[in-house]
Automatic annotation (TrEMBL):
Keywords: Oxidoreductase. This is LLM class F420-dependent oxidoreductase. Residues 24-333 form the Luciferase-like domain. Gene3D superfamilies: Luciferase-like domain. The gene is hmd. It comes from the Bacteria. It holds the Pfam family Bac_luciferase. GO terms for molecular function: oxidoreductase activity, acting on paired donors, with incorporation or reduction of molecular oxygen.
């Protein structure tokens, strides 16, 4: 395998971001205060995990852009196919203008079951590749004519663009082919929660190797590792933030298998999890039906301790800080902290900053 050097490190907190509104919410206005807190802590980025209903990335990040001044703002992620590419590029450049160049556009694939329910085609690998090119060219002011697997678009063009570059395009990826596409065609990759630090290292190497093989500078492709953090919480809250959140990912057919395989874990607990009385026969994703607190008992029964101890950062703020440094040491360029709202991340941020100075 081609050996590719990792990207040079920078100040630790500038390489750490946070999810805004982690999980379900009916009050999107909370994102404004959370983003201000993230910026006050010195974090480098804040991200919206788009969820249809109250977490549309355009309105949310537009509001957050006006409440912040320096922190980078990203969508992680909007699914390819939900928006016409012209509208997607238009939203991206509007946010790029509103943030004065601080926006990052994250794209991902719809799960096949969701695509069927929405009456959409599941994006194949070529669609994922072509979408990056289409959106990037539109954001650069080009007229795009395209007829292929992503659709038939005779003539598309944006007008009145700001004098700013196109925002970085990052791809949410789990499997090896998606990691390769991120390295070959995107500006970065967002890795799924509940990967071990070693698994993040393997994914980072694959992305950078793919970039080098495509004739790109492997250091130009950013690797964002998403890490669930539960620092200094009660046992119940720690279970809700980490293990119950894990239920909502590993319960999904395909996602669960990909995650355990990447980590080198056994698949056996997946069958027990999906057969649990709360989840058995459930159509679709569990977090569309249950809150994390409603999944506490299922999490305690079915989620192996190994999955949260090695696939997340839980415990004291000092221990969580050490775990996050492991992910950076293994090859992540940046981290996206998930699960805990930003007002809970202060002690972790302090430990990260102190460790850098020691």
């Amino acid at each position: 395998m081609v050996q590719v050097a990792r990207s040079p490190s920078g100040p630790t907190l500038s390489r750490v971001g946070a999810y805004l509104l982690p999980g379900r919410t009916t009050d999107p206005l909370r994102a404004i205060a959370e983003a201000r807190t993230a910026e006050h802590l010195g974090l480098g980025s804040a991200w919206i995990g788009e969820r249809l209903g109250t977490k549309d990335f355009g309105p949310l990040l537009g509001a957050v852009a006006q409440a912040t001044s320096s922190i980078r703002l990203g969508s992680a992620v909007t699914n390819i196919g939900l928006r016409h590419p012209l509208l997607l590029a238009s939203a991206a450049m509007s946010l790029q203008a509103m943030t004065q160049g601080r926006f990052i556009l994250g794209l991902g694939r719809l799960h096949p079951s969701a695509a069927r329910a929405y009456g959409l085609q599941t994006p194949n690998n070529q669609v994922v590749r072509d979408t990056a090119s289409i959106v990037r060219r539109l954001c650069q002011g080009e007229t795009v004519s395209y007829d292929g697997p992503a659709g038939n678009f005779p003539k598309m063009r944006l007008t009145d663009l700001p004098e700013l570059p196109a925002p970085p395009l990052v791809l949410a990826a789990i499997g090896p082919k998606s990691l390769d596409i991120a390295g070959q065609h995107y500006d970065g990759v967002v890795l799924h929660p509940f990967l071990t630090a070693a698994a993040v290292g393997r994914c980072a190497l694959r992305v950078r190797t793919a970039a080098a093989a495509a004739g790109r500078d492997p250091q130009s492709v950013r690797v964002y590792a998403t890490v669930v953090v539960a620092a200094d919480l009660t046992d119940q809250e720690e279970t809700a933030v980490a293990a119950a959140r894990a239920v909502t990912y590993f319960q999904i057919p395909g996602y669960g298998e990909n995650l355990v395989d990447i980590n080198g874990w056994s698949r056996e607990p997946l069958a027990q999890l999906r057969a649990d009385p709360v989840l058995a026969g459930l159509p679709g994703a569990a977090d569309h039906r249950f809150t994390r607190h409603e999944l506490l008992d299922t999490a305690r029964r079915c989620v192996p301790t190994e999955w949260t101890l090695t696939g997340a950062a839980i415990g004291t703020a000092s221990h969580c800080s050490s775990r996050l440094r492991e992910y950076l040491a293994e090859g992540a360029d940046e981290l996206i902290l998930h699960g805990s709202t930003t007002e809970l991340l202060g002690p972790v941020a302090q430990h990260l900053a102190a460790a850098e100075q020691s």
